[in-house]
Design brief:
This protein has six helices and 13 strands. It has 283 residues and is of the alpha/beta class.
Length: 283
């Protein structure tokens, strides 16, 4: 099935780094103590489907990831942007041909290679209504909200922040409404750009969401006790924790930077506990 409609309330936080990834344990509010909902999410990012000379490698990586994800028996797959290299209809069609091989439902979000870079300084090739129109024609809205196993999954089009496009206003309205109707504490958010890379007060750059929008998002996430914010874009994995919100960027499928291996991430959520396992593929 293809889908894109295809401070935590705690006394303490402990982070344990293990050989295959990261485990986060959060103390739970007693009101949640009898809940046993479990959610398994495959986070896949930066597939960069194209028709260039590197596509043979990228497609091979993608197929290996799909095989691993199918074996992992996940509830849902979230693909956090840069689905393609250039955001053409032909590339989207090839992406769909590959992604239909996932057994679990798939949720997709655009990245800067799909619809254009976020507006920032003298950045070229910025997000545009024309490229958005192509994406929307293929996948529908470039954001989402779904409830799976008692958890709310919210997807954002992070390329829109600061764009000034009408679509940005529409997405903010959707986001605020979605949070208001959701009980706090059982929410995971997905996007392409990380909120920040090294410090929550770092300046805006090609690698992150600009400070004004970052601050507004983090305030919203804190108010509604978001468990985790998952992104891609960097072509290397990073893990940060801000006031109980796990901020994680997944490894890429296509190619890694700074020595990063290619692969994907398995997120397991059980009540107020988030566990991340990084899964790598053989070259």
């Amino acid at each position: 099935m293809y889908m894109n409609f295809l401070k935590i309330k705690s006394a303490w936080i402990a982070v344990l780094i293990v050989c295959f990834g990261f485990v986060i344990h959060a103390g739970e509010d007693s009101t949640h103590s009898n809940l046993i909902n479990i959610l398994r999410i495959a986070v896949v990012s930066d597939t960069h489907v194209n028709f260039g000379t590197n596509q043979q490698i990228y497609a091979s990586n993608f197929k290996k990831v799909i095989s691993q994800v199918n074996t992992a028996d996940v509830d849902v797959v979230a693909i956090t942007g840069d689905l393609t290299e250039n955001g053409t209809r032909q590339e989207y069609s090839e992406f769909q041909n590959l992604v239909k091989n996932f057994k679990a439902p798939v949720l997709v979000l655009p990245g800067n290679h799909d619809i254009g870079n976020k507006k920032q300084g003298k950045t070229t090739n910025e997000v545009s209504t024309e490229r958005l129109a192509i994406y929307h024609a293929v996948f529908g809205k470039s954001w989402f909200a779904f409830k799976v196993n008692g958890f709310k999954l919210i997807g954002l089009n992070s390329c829109l922040f600061g764009s000034g496009l009408d679509t940005e206003t529409e997405m903010w309205e959707f986001l605020r409404f979605t949070f208001e109707e959701q009980d706090p504490g059982r929410v995971l958010v997905f996007a392409h750009y990380p909120l920040f890379v090294d410090r929550v007060d770092e300046p805006g750059s090609y690698s992150n969401i600009d400070p004004a929008y970052r601050s507004e998002l983090l305030a919203l996430f804190q108010r509604h006790k978001v468990l985790c914010y998952c992104s891609g874009h960097l072509h290397r994995s990073i893990t940060n924790n801000y006031e109980g919100i796990l901020c994680y960027s997944a490894p890429p499928v296509s190619y890694g930077l700074s020595g990063q291996k290619v692969g994907w991430a398995l997120i397991t959520v059980s009540n107020m506990v988030v566990r991340i396992e990084q899964k790598f593929i053989a070259p």
